[in-house]
Fold this protein.
Amino acid sequence: MVKHVILWTLKDEFKNSDEIKSGIKSGLEGLKGQIPGLIDIKVNICPLASSNCDVMLDSCFEDEASLKGYSVHPAHVEVANTKVRPFTASRTCMDYEA
């Protein structure tokens, strides 16, 4: 099993936008059941004040090949290009075997 965790910081003008955060959450979580090898996907949009990021993706894949397939899957690319990338200033990623 492979875990794929991403932390995003939103662009300043979107930091207080619940609509943008909700769109990221619904878009990414809506991928469950659409992408082969994607076991689970959750997005947290309610960080505590002590956090230094705005949105977290926590996802799980059958294996590394499934994660690679997810990255180029048309449904994921669509969500990334329309709901995530236009609104984020930075991205940090960690993938690991669980």
